[in-house]
Structures are given as structure tokens and as C-alpha cells.
Write a structure and sequence with these properties.
alpha+beta; globular; five-stranded mixed sheet
Length: 555
């Protein structure tokens, strides 16, 4: 067997190992992430429960609206344009439009994107580390990130030894905000709930793998057509995941600095990426003030505006990254990884995330830190392998100990996530699902509905109808000033003077009054019962059709 055949055989064995371990884990996990029970629709993990309701609302745009109306309005904010990176949700919406049920329209793209991510992540690491075994190790480090929270679990287990504690860890040990641990495991906080990131990361990896191969070959036999075609992928990221786009721009810039002799080739690639990216950015984000999202914010979550516990930066880094960062720093010097443009790019991304805030919601810097972590897994894997390769048994024990310290918290998290029989949460009741289906039959996809901003409201997420004011937490994270609309929604739901004028001004077609409208907005049912037609009623909800011509004339 030749060296080339041996290398290919080792590569394939490593890929099979990744798919047989992480691939199986993720396939089983995704199959439990969204499911129906007798009493409603459930999310298998809290981050999906929190995030996917808005993704359902976005997917409904492509599932139910006419094509010409797709981008006519924002489904969760009456005064905003639909300027969210839409590609992942559009895929699910089109699958629903083609007849696939809601659950598999969301799960199928997630499974496929995850498997593609696994393969590309393995290829990426193998090309840099030149070792299938180290590529498998690096993948494992990537998925099992977590800080020092496992020490809390160890203390709890020591205090109360029990099989029950092992079978179901009582809390998330990569998210203990009261103790300063907020760099949540990537699978839990990013890959499962963040549909845009899950689709964007494989695209970004495909570009980096290809560019690195071109650079290593000196761009030999790389035609202009290939460079132009590759340049289209970053443009796709503009409508898929902007944080991955930003990370890719930075990493490509650093690659160019290390490969200036081939700058004519880089100019072709950059030009073919810049033109469609600029056009798409202008079409999607014009008027959003996206540039103002980037603000000086030293210390990230230890910034004075964010750090209520006054945790110093060095302690925050230790609690959230543990030995990972010291290992990476030692390896950068020991193996001169500062000469590798992509690893250096990971360092630069990390530093930038602790100097600037890239979105109004500071925690969202984690979307860039995910890329930093991906790149820094390279030197960490290399150093752990170096310790293991030494004949000294003490060195091997240190390697094992460091690996455990690096992956223990993340492993606990991944095990807890898999216990969907215990951690699943209901998103919508059967009543809400039936109500949404009935409401679809008596309304149009572009009708505007006045309701509360409950982030699980069935109107936008299940029926696919527009609402005036979606969950204020989402809107704030997008940088939207929703306060004027909030005041008007409060006025209308409570039936104060001026309600009919506001209903007409906004063009409201229906009013929904349920538990959250009564609790959070003081909804005045009698006002609407006297002035507008009750067209739908169930145990907890009433739906009124707005009669703009006679509403103000009724007693």
C-alpha cells in the first residue's frame, strides 16, 4: 500500500469515526428536539423553546404568503422591514409549502446541515493538523466547550452521591450566570437554537477549506471562473448568517496578508464576493442602522454596563474557558501557530469580541466567539497530542487531566440535553394549535393582528399572520425602537380613547384577547365586544374582526 493510499485510508477511518460518534449523537438528538404529545407541541431543549417560535414566524412567511409578499413586511413588527437573514427559515417554509409537516420541515434541514458541518469541520481540522486522529480530537474539543462549572457538579456529587444525579445533572454547568459562567456550550446555545448559524458555518468552512488549499498550492491552476464561483458563497452568507460573514471577511483579510504575492488572485475573489454581497446587504439591511451595532465595549460581559457582579476579566476568562486558553497560548508559542493565518485569526476574533459589541444584545458576541473557539481548537488539540506522544507517563496523565478539564462541563451539558424526557418544554397547547388552524381558514396571510408580545404567541408562529408587536426581547436584540408601537398596542388593547383611530391608522384586521393580553396589557374585552364582531372563541381566547367603518359608532 502506497503512502497516498495509507493517508486516504486513515482519512476515511477518521471520517467514519466522526460520523459514527458525533453523527449518531446529533441524529438521535435532533429527532427529539421537536415533537408532539397529546397536549401540544414540545421543544426538546430550553434554547429551542426560547428561539424557535420566532423562526416559525419567519418560516411562515415563505410557507403561506404569495411570493410577491415575502418581503413586504416584517411578520413580528408592524413598522419594520423583513430584514432578518432569512435563508434557513426560507428553506423550512418552502418545505412546508411543498406539503411537509411543520416538525420535519424544521428538523430535516437541521439534520442535514449538522452532518455537513461535521464532515467539513473534520476536513478543515485534518488539513491544518495533518492528522485524522487530531482532527477527531479537535472536533470533540469544539463540541464539548465549557468552563469550570463541572467543579460545582463534582462538589454536589460529593455532597450527595447518587445515581440520579449522574443520570440527570440538575442544572446547566456551562451556564451559571450567578457565578459568572456564561460562555454556554456551543451545541446548547448555538448549533441547536441558532438556525442561521447552523446553516452559515458549513458555508464559511467550505470557503476557508478551499481558500487554504488554493494558498498552499500557490493558486496553481485556479481559474478566474473558480475564484468568481467561490466568491458567491460569502455573498450567500449575507442572507444566511451575518456573524459568519463578518468572521469570514476578517479571516480572508488575514489570509491575504500572509499571501500578498498572490494578491491579483485575491482581488478577483474579493471582487466577485463584494459586488453581490453589497447588493444583498443594501436590499436587506438598508435603513436598519446595522453599522451602529458595532460599539466600543471593552471587557464584553465584564464591561461595567453588564457586569453586576464586578467579576474581574481574568477570573471571567478562567471561569468560562478554564485551561483551554492557557493551553492555546502555550501551543501558539511552542508550535508557532501564530504563523498560521487562520489560527491567528481566531486570536484576533477573540480579542475583538472583548473590545467591541457587535449587536445591541452583548451576549450575541458568542456567535463570533464560536468561530474563534473553532480555530483555537487547533493549537489545543496539537498540544494535547504532543503531551500524549511523550513516553513519560506523567506527561500522559497531564494530557488526560487537561482534556478532562477542557471537556467535562460540555460533556455534562450534552448529556443533559439528550434527556429530553426530562428537560423538554411545551411550546403550544392543543387548544392553541387548533385555534391557529381555524384562524388560518378565516384570514389572509398578510392580515394584521393586534395581540400581546408573548414570544410563544400562536398568531405569528402557528397561523403565520402578521402582528403589530412581537416579543420585545427579540426586537431589542435587533436594535429596534419599539416603544411608540408598544404604547399604541397598550392603548388599543385596553380600549382607551383613540383606540379606533389607531386601529384604522395601523390597518388592524383582527384583535386577539387571551391570557397574556389580559395579564400584560390589561385587555378590555367588553370594549371590543361592544364595537367589533366576535368571530372565534375558545376557552382562553377571543378573536374579533375589526369593523373599521362602524367600530366608533357602536354604543
Amino acid at each position: 500500500m502506497t503512502n497516498g493510499e495509507t493517508d486516504r485510508s486513515s482519512f476515511v477511518r477518521g471520517l467514519v469515526a466522526i460520523l459514527a460518534t458525533w453523527g449518531v449523537y446529533f441524529c438521535l438528538l435532533w429527532s427529539r428536539m421537536l415533537f408532539e404529545k397529546s397536549d401540544g407541541l414540545y421543544a426538546g431543549w430550553r434554547t429551542l423553546w426560547a428561539d424557535w417560535s420566532v423562526h416559525f414566524a419567519y418560516a411562515n412567511v415563505f410557507a403561506y404568503r404569495r411570493v410577491g409578499d415575502w418581503f413586504s413586511s416584517n411578520p413580528i413588527f408592524v413598522q419594520g422591514d423583513f430584514d432578518y437573514p432569512f435563508l434557513a427559515d426560507a428553506l423550512s417554509g418552502l418545505l412546508m409549502r411543498a406539503g411537509l409537516d411543520r416538525i420535519w420541515a424544521f428538523l430535516l434541514p437541521s439534520v442535514v446541515a449538522t452532518l455537513v458541518l461535521l464532515v467539513l469541520l473534520y476536513v478543515f481540522y485534518e488539513r491544518i493538523l495533518r492528522s485524522p486522529k487530531l482532527a477527531v480530537l479537535a472536533c470533540t474539543l469544539f463540541f464539548t466547550n465549557g468552563g469550570m462549572g463541572f467543579l460545582k457538579f463534582a462538589a454536589e456529587l460529593a455532597q450527595n452521591p447518587s445515581l440520579k444525579l449522574l443520570l440527570l445533572p440538575p442544572r446547566e454547568y456551562t451556564y451559571l450566570p450567578q457565578e459568572g459562567i456564561q460562555w454556554i456550550n456551543i451545541v446548547s446555545s448555538e448549533l441547536l437554537p441558532q438556525r442561521a448559524l447552523l446553516l452559515g458555518m458549513p458555508i464559511g468552512l467550505a470557503v476557508l477549506i478551499t481558500l487554504r488549499r488554493y494558498v498552499e498550492s500557490g493558486f496553481a491552476d485556479v481559474s478566474r471562473a473558480k475564484l468568481c464561483a467561490l466568491g458567491l458563497l460569502p455573498a450567500v452568507l449575507v442572507v444566511t448568517h451575518m456573524h459568519t460573514f463578518l468572521a469570514l471577511v476578517l479571516l480572508c483579510g488575514i489570509l491575504l496578508l500572509f499571501d500578498r504575492r498572490n494578491y491579483p488572485k485575491w482581488l478577483i475573489f474579493a471582487g466577485s464576493a463584494a459586488l453581490p454581497s453589497t447588493i444583498l446587504f443594501a436590499l436587506l439591511y438598508a435603513g436598519t442602522g446595522a453599522g451602529s451595532f458595532i460599539t466600543w465595549y471593552p471587557g464584553w460581559l465584564t464591561n461595567a454596563a453588564q457586569n453586576r457582579q464586578l467579576i474581574p476579566l481574568w477570573l471571567f476568562l478562567w471561569l468560562n474557558w478554564g485551561v483551554f486558553l492557557p493551553i492555546a497560548a502555550v501551543s501558539l508559542i511552542r508550535f508557532r501557530y501564530f504563523r498560521d493565518p487562520l489560527v491567528l485569526g481566531g486570536v484576533v476574533l477573540f480579542v475583538l469580541c472583548f473590545l467591541f459589541r457587535f449587536q445591541p444584545y452583548a451576549w450575541d458576541n458568542t456567535k463570533l466567539l464560536t468561530w474563534s473557539h473553532l480555530l483555537l481548537c487547533v493549537p489545543v488539540a496539537r498540544y494535547l497530542a504532543h503531551l500524549w506522544s511523550r513516553p513519560n507517563p506523567i506527561s500522559r496523565c497531564v494530557a488526560v487531566a487537561l482534556l478532562l478539564f477542557t471537556t467535562a462541563s460540555g460533556t455534562l451539558e450534552l448529556w443533559r440535553i439528550s434527556r429530553t424526557d426530562r428537560v423538554a418544554a411545551r411550546m403550544w397547547s392543543r387548544e392553541e394549535m387548533a385555534l391557529a388552524e381555524t384562524f388560518q381558514g378565516i384570514s389572509e396571510p398578510t392580515d394584521l393582528v393586534l395581540c400581546s408580545d408573548d414570544h410563544h404567541h400562536w398568531v405569528p408562529s402557528l397561523s403565520g399572520r402578521r402582528i403589530l408587536l412581537g416579543f420585545r426581547g427579540w426586537l431589542a436584540s435587533y436594535g429596534v425602537d419599539y416603544r411608540p408601537v408598544e404604547r399604541d398596542v397598550m392603548t388599543m388593547l385596553s380600549g382607551r380613547p383613540g383606540t379606533e383611530d389607531l386601529l384604522e391608522r395601523y390597518g388592524v384586521d383582527f384583535v386577539v384577547i387571551g391570557r397574556t393580553e389580559r395579564r400584560d396589557f390589561g385587555a378590555n374585552e367588553s370594549y371590543f365586544e361592544q364595537r367589533h364582531e366576535l368571530i372565534l372563541e375558545q376557552a382562553n381566547y377571543k378573536v374579533f374582526e375589526v369593523d373599521r367603518e362602524s367600530g366608533s359608532d357602536r354604543p
